[in-house]
Amino acid sequence: MDKVDYLIRTFSRTKRKDYENYILNAIWQGIDCIDIRPVTQQFVRVNADKYYLIDLYFPQINIGIEVDEAFHKKNIELDLKRSLTIEEKLSSIREDSLFEIKRVDATLSLQELTVRIKEISLEIKEKIIENDITQWDTDISVKERVEEKGFLSVDDFYRFRLMTDVANQLFFKEYKGFQRASFSTIVEDTPVAVWFPIISTEDKKEHNQWLNYLDNTWSILEEKNIRGDDKLHHHKIGELRIVFAKIRDHFGKFNYRYIGNFKLNNISADNKVRSYVKISETLYIDYQNQTITL
Fold first, then answer.
1. 293 near 284, Cβ under 8 Å?
2. I want to staple 187 with a disulfide (CB 3.0 to 4.6 A). Which of 50, 112, 192, 271 is the partner?
3. pTM of the entire structure?
């Protein structure tokens, strides 16, 4: 997506909120840096049952901005109890991941509001300089960022457009195309499946052969065979899967996000339901030696 189009569509998501729209645009103009990518209406996960929505988020520096309007202050509890779609939940960031939030009181006088907007804009500009941000995170391949850090974490805001992007950028593959739900790799001399499940809910069945249910903490993943035939896939307790869930972004496009490493914990008697438990949330990748550890 063209950057101008992205910015227009991003900030137009607040067009029905006059105070929020004015403040967020004023902050964006005050930052005066086209190298930082903004995300509006970002969901933040507090715990298994509690989420909230922040008005503006900068994933490259992990800072969010929340505009507190008079009406909004009276409806905070209602906002926190809102029912989220599975896509929104999987697109969320965790509050405990060194996330920083800056609040703006929209009920301030114009003079006080102007001072607060300038203050936040300056703080963000300083953070951009401190983190040496010179281009949008979407302009840098995930491989470059992971190679620099040495690992991929569930708290990273990375998205992969295709399964081949995951395979080629993280797992040393050279796929030109890929259509299956998983592929195999080696982790510490052990075969491991890299899995791309479509997540379902009780209200929204996303597949006609397999249903994959993820709990709100991203800790338990259940795979259920609903094929209705006698063809069974045999697995063993303890098998490992590195999981990239398929989600839809704010603009309706599908992509994949890393949600952790899981171990097969239980198999039903009829071999049609398998339960996986998360064992870690980091994937360590050594590009020089082409090795992976969990």
1. yes
2. 192
3. 0.88
Report the side by side order of strands in the sheet with 39-45: 93-94, 39-45, 51-58, 63-68, 100-105
Report d(CA 189, CA 170) in Å as an integer.
Answer: 17
Q: Which tokens belong to 55? A: 């008005």
In the chain, which stretches have pLDDT less than 70? Answer: 1, 14-17, 70-83, 203-208, 228-233
The domain ranges of the chain are 3-138, 141-293
* Residue among 164, 211, 188, 180 at smallest CA distance from 261: 188
Angle ∠(136,152,143) on CA atoms, nearest 5: 55
CB contact set of 83 (below 8 Å; sequence gap of 6+): none
Q: Which value, to the nearest 10 degrees, does the dihedral of the CA atoms of residues 150, 191, 275, 204 take?
A: 70
